[in-house]
Amino acid sequence: MRVLKAELTKKNQLKCEYKQTEVGRDRNLDQPFNVKVGKVSDQEAHRDLCYAFSRLSPHILFSSELIDAKVAIPTSIEDKDWFDKFHYEDDSRFDGVNVNKIETFGKNAIEGVRLIGTKETSKGEIVPLKSPVIYFDRSNTEHYPLVAILESQIETLIFEIEEYQAGKNVNSNQLSLFEAGK
Prior knowledge:
The chain contains 5 helices and 7 strands. By secondary structure, it is of the alpha+beta class. The longest helix has 19 residues, at 147-165.
């Protein structure tokens, strides 16, 4: 299955749409065909899933050219450390920005993504945001400059979505490093 759309709802639950390839069972067809499968869960999203969505916030502004990535990142434009150390959280230009939905594009694999979210203004108004489709093909000289970082973060998000669908949740017990009483 491949994620087509994933959305973190206001109730912190996940809605997903998948593309699944099946082989015909009816009419003696042996040709594979695609099926879209929608899933909605009432279980609360786990911390890693929410974190994976939150890391996409700078990309929605950079890719929409609402903030210039070259100005926003004081070191190299592809400085993964800038994302890993959450430097964007200390920058007021990113305040109130949330990405809560992705749409993926591609025939057999994820070849691009669109980010959808909101920005809460200082007056408390909610402004919808939608990035252009960001393709992962780096051969195009016009590509999004942070595409390698974005692609890696999308892969992490997809992994966390799959973990969520497999039952990872807020109440999952963690294994202890030490046995109780020792």
